[in-house]
Specification:
9% strand; two-stranded parallel sheet; GTPase activator activity; WPP_dom; alpha/beta; WPP domain-containing protein; Serum Albumin, Chain A, Domain 1; 13-stranded parallel sheet
Length: 538
């Protein structure tokens, strides 16, 4: 009897590795997508999948691998699931290799079709994402040789040019550069050695120098300062730019200073996008110099750029000159309260603002209140308000609610991952009551909201004609509350988002033993799956 009891206790305390959590499965999909879109020896031979195709393949692969592993696990239900995890990883790797060898579904022949869609647009981005050699460049770029062509926009995105292909392209670009107004060179040197990539950029820059562009996209090229300066000849010749995109370009402090130094005039600039760079505070100060010289700016994006309080304050001061601003995206930086308050003084000047994205800025209540108060008195046509992930409590909700109540054209509201709780949710819900006929999406997920707050939000939005989605997942709604809410949406269930992560127990913490067990499970699963790679085969 004693030994049986001990065996039972040992079994009940053992860690189960199968099935993996929903988050772990999503993590694997994300990792496989990255693997499938990363240039490698396989992609050189079979072609590189687009992000969209890779993500679709990754989801299918994960589902098939999960099914195979789950079937395996059912044959050993008393085990810890470790062998099922191994099957899961091995099957995922095998199926990834098959996807790579299958290659992209989009065929090169479709490129020619795309280039003929409109005689003013020459676009080769629709083919497979892969290296392009001199021979292929000669064939694909043939339309540029035609005398009297009227191409004003070229897009070389999604094809990686080496020096041989660039030498083919150079004289062709030179022949049409006087008629060009839009140039897209985003993601056009992927996988090339730095020395070769810099030579290619210098060549394209010198060839295009002097063309009068309104649109220039150099995104996804890991430029850094060297890359920015490689495009120096082109940048220094631009006086009429209206749109400039430098997304995911490794724009450091030095690179940002180079951009500011090289572009002679931004008086006509309407769109300026820096996203997913390592700009930091000093880099943001350099970007703010560009912004100050851009009075016509309508769309400014400086999200995920590692900007702290000092950089945030500098950007806020610079934005005061941009009174025509319509869209502002500063998400995912480290502004803090000080930069939030500084930004509020600029927001009060933007009468035409329609979209504002200020999530994950560490604003807290004081910063959020300052911004809400400023927006209340300006931006009468605001359509999108995003202030998720800012540690806003019920204290800050009062100012937010007053602001929201005044925005009759609001279509999307995102206050997810704050600390509003029932009190804050009820204030926000009441602010949406009347005069918000344009509203179609509200995200109040992960706010420690309980039954009363969730019910009121549901009662308000379900009455709005054309409303599309309420997200209140990740809260503390009781089972009874869930039933009430589902009843409210019974005639339009698609309007209610998933409630999979709701915690009906309503606790902010879990049992310590369970925490330790889950942590151990997560760590072991992570260790088994983190190094998942494509196995090389015949």
């Amino acid at each position: 009897m004693e030994s049986g009891t001990q065996a039972f206790q040992q079994r009940s305390l053992s860690v189960k590795l199968w099935p993996p959590s929903h988050g772990t499965r999503l993590m694997l999909v994300e990792r496989m997508t990255k693997n499938l879109t990363t240039p490698s020896i396989f992609s050189r031979k079979y072609g590189l999948l687009s992000n969209e195709e890779a993500e679709e393949d990754a989801k299918k692969i994960e589902e098939l691998a999960f099914a195979a592993a789950d079937q395996h696990y059912k044959k050993e239900p008393d085990g810890d699931g470790s062998s099922a995890v191994q099957v899961y990883a091995k099957e995922s790797s095998r199926l990834m290799l098959e996807a790579i060898k299958r290659g992209p579904t989009v065929k090169d022949e479709e490129i020619a079709d795309k280039t003929s869609i409109h005689e003013t647009v020459f676009d080769i981005s629709g083919g497979r994402r892969a290296f392009i050699d001199a021979e292929e460049a000669e064939e694909i770029l043939k339309p540029l040789r035609e005398p009297g062509n009227s191409y004003t926009k070229i897009c070389f995105s999604n094809r990686s040019f080496g020096l041989d292909a660039a030498n083919v392209a150079a004289p062709l670009l030179s022949s049409v550069k006087q008629q060009l107004t839009e140039v897209d060179l985003s993601d056009f040197i992927a996988g090339r050695p730095e020395s070769e990539a810099l030579e290619v950029m210098n060549l394209f820059s010198s060839v295009l120098e002097g063309c009068q562009l309104r649109y220039l996209n150099l995104s996804n090229n890991a430029l850094g300062e060297k890359g920015v300066r490689a495009f120096g000849a082109l940048l220094m010749s631009q006086n009429n730019l209206e749109e400039l995109y430098l997304i995911n370009d490794g724009i450091s402090e030095e690179a940002a200073q180079a951009v500011s130094e090289l572009i002679p005039s931004t008086k006509k600039l309407k769109v300026l996008h820096f996203h997913n760079n390592m700009t930091g505070d000093e880099g943001a100060i350099a970007i703010s110099d560009i912004v100050k010289r851009s009075p016509a700016l309508e769309d400014f994006r400086c999200s995920s750029t590692r900007v702290g309080t000092d950089g945030g304050v500098a950007l806020a001061e610079a934005l005061k000159t941009c009174t025509r601003l319509k869209k502002l995206d500063l998400r995912d930086n480290m502004f803090g309260v000080g930069a939030g308050v500084a930004l509020s003084k600029a927001l009060s000047l933007f009468a035409g603002l329609t979209e504002v994205y200020l999530s994950y800025l560490n604003l807290e209540d004081d910063g959020a209140e300052a911004l809400a108060n400023a927006l209340k008195e300006s931006a009468p046509s605001l359509e999108v308000l995003d202030m998720a992930g800012n540690d806003i409590t019920a204290k800050g909700a009062a100012s937010l609610a007053a602001c929201i109540a005044s925005k009759q054209f609001l279509s999307k509201l995102n206050l997810a991952e704050n600390e509003l709780k029932d009190e804050g949710a009820i204030l926000i819900g009441k602010s949406l009551g009347e005069g918000h006929g344009q509203l179609n999406e509200v995200d109040m997920s992960t706010n420690a909201i309980r039954r009363a707050g969730a019910r009121l939000l549901a009662q308000v939005v379900v009455k709005i004609p054309g409303f599309k989605l309420l997200n209140i997942n990740g809260n503390f709604i009781s089972d009874e509350g869930i039933d009430e809410i589902k009843e409210l949406f019974k005639s339009s269930p698609d309007m209610l988002g998933s409630l999979e992560d709701n915690d009906p127990e309503g606790e902010d913490y879990e049992d310590e033993d369970e925490d330790e067990e889950n942590a151990e499970e997560g760590n072991e699963l992570e260790s088994k799956l983190k190094d998942l790679k494509i196995e090389q085969g015949e």
